[in-house]
UniProtKB/TrEMBL annotation:
This is Uncharacterized protein. It comes from human gut metagenome.
């Protein structure tokens, strides 16, 4: 698709702006945004790249010890995500990998 815009014409520009807002300001993952809009996360990534937004890597460098300690103090996944500045799914994934919670 040599430099052509891959965003379908039916794709509402406002929706792409919403996706960008969720991605940048709410630290939502492309997969989470895709789920909300009924499209694939990879499609969301394409839309965002076309807006000039750099896509974060999946290997978000999160302090897993900090996540574990916050969890041990009784914080919920959403609160930990807010403290860490990442998505709840990123926290859940780290906790599940370390077997602190079931996925």
């Amino acid at each position: 698709h040599m430099g052509m815009c891959t965003t379908p014409k039916v794709q509402n520009h406002r929706k792409v702006e919403e996706m960008a807002y969720l991605y940048i300001h709410h630290h939502m993952s492309t997969d989470d945004i895709g789920l909300a809009y009924g499209i694939r996360g990879s499609t969301v990534a394409i839309y965002l790249r076309e807006q000039g937004i750099e896509i974060r890597t999946n290997t978000l460098q999160l302090d897993e010890n900090n996540i574990k300690n916050l969890r041990a103090k009784g914080y919920g996944v959403a609160k930990i995500a807010q403290i860490m500045g990442c998505s709840a799914s990123a926290v859940r994934k780290r906790l599940a990998m370390k077997k602190y919670i079931s996925p």
